[in-house]
Design a protein that fits this description.
71% of the residues lie in helices and 0% in strands. The chain is mostly helical. The protein folds into two domains: 190 residues, Glycolipid transfer protein, GLTP (Orthogonal Bundle); 192 residues, Orthogonal Bundle (Glycolipid transfer protein, GLTP), CATH 1.10.3520.10. The termini are far apart.
């Protein structure tokens, strides 16, 4: 308990040390103390619950990468220069790209603390919403922003947060203020590293351009795990599934219902990953407790997520095999829907979805939304189609091998 009680204190002290280095103007910030300080912030995302689960998963992985980088690279500046030299600066997973995302994480916490300090009452909804809107929202698609907004209603109260951190309000205010003051020059230092090299710090469009590549890469990793006869980890599956959400949004009104249903279920699996390392363990727990078919159970949500992944797979496959030019994707959308989701929907919903298909974009409009030309898009679409088929079969096998069925 004593260690937990020092959480905010350890964070503020670590960032004060970094700020002192920055203020000296003679020393470069080293990767090891920077990554250590950032790792101390990680538990705060966990304390905020499901609203920031995706941020926590993304942040922790990138801090770990920087920690590994510190074994071979001494300073943040040399790390950035190395990526520039190798032309890997904006490559997904590069140290410099991860540095920029980690910086956003510590900036979000800075704004959150600022808002907590000036907000009366016990609710964290307003401070957290303002922090998210200011720092993360500009870099997120509609689906993730919607999921985060929904998750804000599950935030702990300020009193609950302080209890989780084993702090009283007086000590918490002091350490929050210390962190706010110390993190600001550190954040400005990281921004300056990029801006002084005319690299920019806003990769929102680059993120859009890589969405197809990222989702295909994530499912290739899952498929590789399956091909090695290893169990699929819940966190990896949830992260890959989250990358599918924007594509439901790109398909417009016809798939809006699917997107709204899909995003909270992915959030549930992300939350479940805290307790269940693998999908198999998660399913077995529901079997043991006889909750497999219970509305809202992890296993039931897994099955629904699998169907949405299959819908996108079917749609991408039809795009690849149909010469459509600049015509509407309506017929392809109807066929993909009828093959995957329609059997589980009532007549009224099927009718509404079919009607909504008239609003689907053209192929050219779809490619513009994902910011890719047709040649590069075809490669990534095919990769997703092939890899997701393996993942879908794996999930089906989890249910069928336990004689649970998948048609419910």
């Amino acid at each position: 308990m004593a260690e937990d009680a020092k959480t905010l204190r350890k964070i503020s002290v670590a960032f004060k040390d970094l700020a002192d280095t920055v203020d000296s103007k003679t020393l470069d910030v080293e990767v090891a103390p920077f990554s250590h300080a950032c790792s101390l912030v990680s538990p705060l995302f966990g304390c905020l619950g499901i609203a920031f689960k995706f941020a926590e998963m993304d942040y922790v992985a990138k801090v770990v990468d920087l920690s590994e980088a510190s074994k071979s690279i001494q300073t943040l500046e040399s790390m950035l220069e190395l990526d520039i030299e190798h032309k890997t600066l904006k490559v997904a997973g590069s140290h410099s790209r991860n540095l920029l995302r980690v910086k956003r994480g510590i900036d979000m916490v800075r704004v959150l603390f600022e808002q907590i300090l000036v907000t009366e009452g016990n609710s964290l909804k307003d401070p957290a919403s303002k922090a998210y809107a200011q720092v993360f929202a500009p870099h997120h698609g509609w689906a993730i922003r919607k999921a985060v907004a929904a998750g804000m209603y599950a935030l702990p109260s300020k009193a609950q947060l302080l209890k989780k951190l084993n702090e009283d309000e007086v000590s918490a205010r002091i350490e929050m203020q210390n962190y706010v003051a110390a993190s600001a020059p550190v954040i400005q230092y990281v921004d300056k590293l990029f801006l002084s090299r005319e690299l920019g710090i806003d990769c929102a469009m680059a993120k859009v351009a890589r969405r197809l590549r990222n989702v295909s890469a994530a499912f290739i990793e899952l498929a590789d795990t399956i091909s090695k006869n290893q169990d699929v980890e819940t966190e990896d599956f949830a992260r890959a599934s989250a990358l599918v959400a924007p594509f439901l949004g790109y398909l417009g009104f016809a798939f809006k219902f699917a997107e709204m249903d899909y995003v909270p279920k992915v959030g549930d699996l992300a939350e479940a990953s805290k307790s269940f390392m693998t999908l198999e363990a998660m399913l077995d727990r529901d079997v043991e407790q006889n909750t497999v078919r219970l509305a809202g159970s992890h296993s039931r949500n897994l099955l629904r997520i699998k169907r949405a992944i299959d819908t996108i797979r079917s749609f991408f496959k039809l795009i690849l095999t149909t010469e459509y030019g600049d015509m509407s994707l309506k017929d392809l959308g109807i066929k993909a829907y009828d093959e995957t989701l329609a059997p589980y929907h009532g007549w009224a919903l099927r009718k509404a979805v079919h009607t909504g298909m008239f609003t689907l974009p053209t192929k050219a409009q779809f490619l513009k939304k994902v910011n890719q030309d047709e040649a590069s898009a075809r490669t990534d679409l095919q990769s997703y189609v092939d890899a997701s088929a393996t993942v879908i079969q794996y999930v089906d096998k989890l249910f069928l091998s336990r004689e649970l069925g998948t048609e419910w």
